């Protein structure tokens, strides 16, 4: 679907953010929106986190008068995307919106994750991959998406792949111990927030991990174009 065919000429990329220190994560999502906008001439593309006070309202106001495509920069459609985000958009005054599926559900993102695994495995040092994900105490959806992704990587690469979680079992440290110290870790996260910078290294250290740690899936160079392509399709 090309620009102008449906009126979806504005987009807001929304991430969770970091409640304890909202500034850096909000700046990161705004920068991502700028990179996405380069692939969408004529579009207004904004970025906001739920954690930064006033950020979503600012983004909605910047898109006033347009139908807004809301792109959840989340790995799954869980509580935040199905309950919290629609409520917050309504509070911000967004009435003409179309919310797209979460980032992690995009087939192009899933193909990217498999490609990352295949490239890391090509070094030949291990056949074990730890897919490190957030998990959730509110919804089974995030774990289900990560487990499905782990099974797909295993099926397409022949690797020994397990998902480990920060907020539910099996924990990352437990899976790291099971896979061995020299496994490959793919952070199945949409951004480089506190979980990736602090919780993940601590859990990996607890599990004796000394293997290859990749950048989060959401921080890969191909991501801005993937998001732009999804927005363009409407």
Structural write-up:
The protein has 234 residues and is of the alpha/beta class. It folds into two domains: 10-103 and 223-233, Rossmann fold; 105-219, Rossmann fold (3-Layer(aba) Sandwich). 43% of the residues lie in helices and 16% in strands. The protein has eight helices and eight strands; from the N terminus they run E-H-E-H-E-H-E-H-E-H-E-H-E-H-E-H. It has helices spanning 22-37, 55-62, 79-91, 107-121, 141-157, 172-179, 194-206, 223-233; strands at residues 10-15, 44-49, 68-72, 97-99, 128-133, 160-165, 184-187, 212-213. The strands form two sheets. A four-stranded parallel β-sheet has the order 2-1-3-4. A four-stranded parallel β-sheet has the order 6-5-7-8, sandwiched between helices. Helix 1 packs across helix 8 (223-233) and helix 4 (107-121) crosses helix 5. The chain is globular. The relative contact order is 0.16. Mean pLDDT is 93; it is low at 1-6.
Number of strands: 8
Q: Please report the distance between the alpha carbons of the first and last residues.
A: 7 Å
Largest beta-sheet details: 4 strands, parallel
**Strand percent estimate:** 15-25%
Q: Class by helix and strand content?
A: alpha/beta
CATH architectural category of the largest domain: 3-Layer(aba) Sandwich
Overall shape = globular
Total helical segments = 8
Quickly name the level 1 CATH class of the largest domain: Alpha Beta
What are the low-pLDDT stretches, counting only 5+ consecutive residues below 50? 1-6
Order of helices and strands: EHEHEHEHEHEHEHEH
**Strand order across the biggest sheet?**
2-1-3-4
Overall tally of domains: 2
The CATH topology name of the largest domain reads Rossmann fold
Whole-number radius of gyration? 18 Å
Mean pLDDT: 93
Estimate percent helicity: 40-55%
